[in-house]
Each structure stands twice: as structure tokens, then as C-alpha cells.
Amino acid sequence: MSIKTIIWLGVLLFLQPFNALAAVTGEIVGQGGQKFPIAVSPLKNQGGNTAEAGRLSTGIADAIVHDLELSGWFKVLDRSAYIENAQNSGITLGTFDFKDWSTIGAEGLVKGGFSVQGDEVTVELRLFDVYQNKERIGKRYTGRVRDFRRIAHKFVDEVINQFTGIPGVFNTRIVYVSNSGGRFKEIFVSHLDGSEKFQVTDNHTINLSPSWSPDGRSVIYSSFKDRNQTLYLFELFSGKELKFTPRGAGRYLSGKLSPDGQSVVATLESAGNSNLYLLDKSGNVIRRLTEDPGIEVSASWSPDGRQITFVSDRGGSPQIYILDLQSGKTRRLTYSGSYNTSPEWSPKGDRVAYTGRVGNRFAIFSISVDGGEPRKLTSESSDSEDPTWSPDGRFIAFSSNRAGKYHLYVMQASGDNQRRLTGSGGDDTKPSWSPRLD
Amino acid sequence: MKTHFRIACYNLLAGAVALFLTACAPSATSKPDSGAADGASAARSPGGDQQAGEGQRGGTKESDASSLKQLQEGKSPVTPASSPLKDVFFDFDRYDLSGDARTILRSNAEWLKSNPSARVEIEGHCDDRGTNEYNLALGAKRAQSAREYLSTLGVAADRLSTISYGQEIPVCKEQTESCWRQNRRARFVVLQGRSAS
Fold first, then answer.
1. Contacts of B42 in chain A (CB under 8 A)
2. CA-to-CA distance for A108 and A110, rounded, in angstroms?
3. How many angstroms separate the first and last alpha carbons of chain A?
4. Which of A134, A209, A236 has its CB closest to that of B43?
5. Is A32 at the interface with chain B, CB within 8 A?
6. In A334-427, beta strands by DSSP E
7. I need a surface site. Which of A148, B168, B178, B183 has the fewest CB within 10 A?
8. What's the CATH number of domain A3-164, 1.10.287.130, 3.40.50.10070, 3.40.50.1100, 3.90.209.20?
9. How far apart are CA B128 and CA A361, in angstroms?
10. Are the C-beta atoms of residues A388 and A367 closer than 8 Å to each other?
């Protein structure tokens, strides 16, 4: 074959989705509607420093396995059933036997290799179609050895893109509140699996309601660290922080940055009344949004930045409303249940997730932005609260005490495949899912 | 002291030969990567937190017996039995004053009128059901209810400030109606003037 033909073949293979139907529905379905069976081989050490070789060989594979399982779309076959020895086998077409993998029931296969030079690692990862004996994705990454999990996340996002036409959301972070088992509430950032945990605040008070800037570089949160609760905008890289100073004797209870990052919708409490205000990103008031004498809190933006969903007790109990910023018109969204709060607008724009009281417990619901019947996503045998959407709108992370303390969980937007994310030994609450990161 | 740690990515073709590598498609918004947030110890500058607190950890400036101060010092935020200003209690998701609450407030008002130099911060608290933000707003309503009633009883409003702690500084943590009831309170903390205890 000429070199040109090889290139074109590679391009065609690269572009073909596994399952044409899957690309249309955005979901992954294996044979018979089950999860897609996939094997993830430990990576082959292709030379270099051997001190970390064992750790990276399984560490990178483990991180890939973890993300694939979190998605709920894959069944990752147990490594103990794998036939070949990864260190003695090739990682490119023709250098290993597909039968070793079809025999154990794999339809997809991830294989790869790495080499370490100093504190840098080069990782090669490939996705194979076991039935058709073809390669679907081939990627090479270089980065710091300590960033190996990020490489795994990026590759899984590519795998999911290959299956569904939409990249995955595993190269993202969550910011959340944890009391680490103690009496203070501090803000933390970590990968979805709880790894690479980074402490944003350390002020030994109460810090709450963190959320991301749209560029993923800053976090806004409220804190009592200066005695009176207000908002702080913290830049993760530089460590620089901007404090929002409320007018008069007011306090800011919470705030969220707009999708274009230029404004903030905040709850200002003054003389007992809590109302929504529109601020610029430096914390200056642009205008007041609600005039109701009751409680108006917990505003969240629509993805196009033109509407806000929020909680108000103007109807006698906490319910969820939508305010159109252009027209100024407000409409009520929830009519079921006596206590509905924490609304979050899906990045897809079509639904709002929220926390609703069921009996004496709280559960996560989602409802169409056009109203109608809400869909209950979690069981009310324990409390599930604080929903936050993934940037592609296909997953929801939340906080639940179903295992005793509050931990963070993730599920598909349908409520399927609920899996625990964190286990800090304390209560982890109020997660916010970052945008996609580089 | 921050550095950005990049991950470089290349596409491989089936049976890759190095000649045919192409760079992976750039992301929609090109931005420096966020690797720096992954555990580098210098990422959070201590100055960011300290400057807000005027040099003092946690930032409470006055020597006060507020629930926040007690939380920071590891003390119980329960109002001592010896305090002349008693807590008032509320029903779930309510901020209106019951008959019992008014009786307590009348007694509190008498003490305040007898101690005209005392300034008081009225704290609003909630039980832990429902969301933190809604409870912060509800606590503010509770504190304001108490303040307004004291003011109608002749206590100068400018002696009374309010603050809400929502569900954040409870006096107990059991998931029982008895504990929840104790947390749904307004608490009166003397800031200046003659000591309340």
C-alpha cells in the first residue's frame, strides 16, 4: 500500500463511530442494551525510569477504569481475567492477539504504553474495536508524571466522544464544602474521584456555596471569615482574591457568575430581607432584580445568560421560579411538593435540577424549564441535596448522607448509575462541577 | 510562584509511525491548563485569607461572645443559663413570633431598657433541614422579627444589629424534633456595655 492510502485508511478508521445509532442518541449501548463491555489493559513500560513503572502501569489504567465506570455506560472487565501479559505484548495493530480479548467478552479494548524521563512521562493510549479488529483512537500525551490522572481523564473524554459524538466530562473538577470531620467548613477542589484534593480556604470559619467561573480559573464562595458573611472571588492560579463589599449593613449570602463571566447574580440580605441583585464581576451593584419582602435566594443562570432560576417563598413556601432578565417577568416553575430549593439549570438548557422535600427527607428532582411533572431522581430513604450538572448536561453530582456522613455522588441525568465520588471522613456538601478544562 | 503545567497531546494513526503525528484538536476556548490547581502547595496565597481578617485568624475583630466566635474557639454556642437575654424559638420554616416568644422578648426588652449602654447582636439560626442558603435567609428573617418587636417595645433600633448563621452553628446535631426545635432560635449576644453574664 502506498503511504497516502495508509494515511487515508487511518483517517477513515479514526472517524467511524462504533455504533451509528449511539452517535445519534448520545448514549452508549452494547449488544442487547447492556453496558458496553470493555477491557483496559495495564500499560506497557516502554523504557525509562523504572522506579515508577509499576505504579504508572496500573495507575493510569485504574484511572481510566474508574472514569469509564463512573459514566455508567461501560462494564469494565476484571483485570484478573485478562489473558495476555501487558509487558510482553504489543500495543499497536498486529502486535497482539484480538482473540485474547474477544475470548473474555470484550467488545472494546484500551491498550497503551508509557516512558518516563525525569519528572516527565510520555503516554500512548489506543482504543480498539475487538469485533472488527480495528483501531479507533490513537493518542500520545506528554506531561508531568504527577499529572498522569489528568492524561487518563482526557483519554476517556476522547473515548466517550468516539462513542457518542460528545466528549466526556472527566477532565473536570469539583469544588465543594467539607468539614473534614471537624467544626469548620472549608472549600476544596478535587478531581471527580476525590484525588488531587486542593484546599482553597483555611480560615477556620464557615465557608459556603462555592461555584466556578466559566473559564474554570476562579471560584466564588461566601464566607464568614471577616465576621459578616460576604462573597469572595478566588483565582486558583495566582491566589489573588477579591472581596465583594455589600452596601450599607447588608450581607451577601451567595452568588454565581454568569455564563459569560461578566456579572454575578447574588442574594443580598439587608434588614432581614433577602433579594436578588445583579452585580458586575468586581462586586458593584448593577441593579436589583427582586422586590419581594419575603425570601429570594439561590439563583442559578440559564446557559444563555438570559434567565435566572431561583427560590422564593412569596407563595407561602419555598418554591422555584424563573426570572427573564430582559422582560423582568417572573414565573413559577414548581407546583409539586411543599419545599423546593437549590435549582440548577442544565447546560443543555432544557431542564432544572433541584432539591425537594419528600416527607421528612430531601431528594433530587429534575423538571422541564417549561414546567410540568418533575422527575424524582434519588430515593427519599436518605437525604440527597445540592445538585450540580456536568458541563455536557448528561450527569448530575450531588451530596447525600445515604452512607452515614454526607458524601458526594454522581449519577446520569436520568438518575441511573449513582456512584460515590468522595469519602473524606467528614461531611462533603454543596458540590459545583467545573467547566471542561484543558 | 505558580506555573502552568501543560499536557501535550498528539493524534496517532493505526500502527503509528512518528512521521504522521498531528496535534490533537485545540479545545474550543484556548486557555492555559489548570494543572496548577492539582495540589501545588503555593496555589493558595495565605495573604488571600489573612487580609480579609485584619491579621486575626477568622477575622472577628471585637471580643464578643457570638456563636461564630464560640465556634472558632471550640466552645458550645449554647446561651448560658445565667444570661439575662434568653433565646426565642420558632416553628419550622417560620419566622413569626409565638406567644411564648413575645413573653421572652418582653423580658429581654426590660433588661435592655435597664442597661441603656448595652448593644446587642441578634443572631438568627435554623435547624439543619433544607438548604444552607435558604436557611441563611430564614435566620435573617427570624433575627429581624425579634428586632422589630423589641423596637416596638421601646428599645432603640440602633442598639440592635442582626446576623444570620442559618443552620451553620447548631447547639445540637441529633436528627430529632427536640434538637431541631432547639436550633430554630434567635439568640441575643451583648457586644458592648455591661457584660450579660
1. 239
2. 7
3. 37
4. A236
5. no
6. 340-345, 351-358, 361-368, 375-376, 384-389, 395-403, 405-412, 419-420
7. B178
8. 3.40.50.10070
9. 11
10. no
- For the beta sheet containing A230-235, the strands, ordered from the edge strand earlier in sequence to the opposite edge, are A207-212, A218-223, A230-235, A241-243
Say whether pTM exceeds 0.90: no
Task: Judge whether residue B4 has pLDDT over 90.
Answer: no
- A311 contacts B12? CB cut-off 8 A: no
Q: Where in chain A is the domain with CATH 2.120.10.30?
A: 174-433
Place of cell 478531581: A191
Q: Do A236 and B60 touch (CB under 8 A)?
A: no
Q: Please report how the helices B99-114 and B132-152 are oriented relative to each other, as an axis angle in degrees rounded to 10.
A: 60
Give the integer Cα–Cα distance in Å for B178 and A269: 29
Pairing of strands A361-368, A375-376: antiparallel
Place of cell 476522547: A158
Contact B196, B83 (CB under 8 A): yes
Map out the domains of chain B with their CATH numbers. Answer: 10-53 (no CATH), 67-192 (3.30.1330.60)
DSSP letter for each residue of A16-33: --S-HHHHHHT----GGG
pLDDT of residue B19: 55
Query: What DSSP character marks residue B150?
Result: H
Please give the order of strands across the beta sheet that includes A384-389: A384-389, A395-403, A405-412, A419-420
CA A36 – CA A234 distance, rounded (Å): 41
Assess whether pLDDT exceeds 60 at residue A241.
yes
Rounded to an integer, what distance in angstroms lies between the CA atom of residue A172 and that of residue A1?
42
Q: Return d(Cα B97, Cα B152) in angstroms, integer.
A: 13
Maximum pairwise Cα distance, chain B: 90
Say which DSSP state A150 is in: H
Find the radius of gyration of the CA atoms of chain A. Answer: 24
Q: Is the ipTM here above 0.95?
A: no
Question: What was the pLDDT predicted at A92?
Answer: 94
* Domain over A174-433 is classified CATH 2.60.40.350: no
* A227 touching B (Cβ < 8 Å): yes
Interval A111-125: pLDDT, tens: 999 999 888 999 999
Put simply, the answer to whether A147 touches B38 (Cβ < 8 Å) is yes
Interchain CB contact of A361 with B (< 8 Å): no
Has residue A12 got a pLDDT over 70?
no
Please compute the mean of the pLDDT values over residues A72-98 and round it to a whole number.
94
Please tell me which of the candidates A93, A184, A429 has its beta carbon nearest to residue B14.
A93
Q: Pick A13's closest partner by Cβ from B14, B138, B161.
A: B14
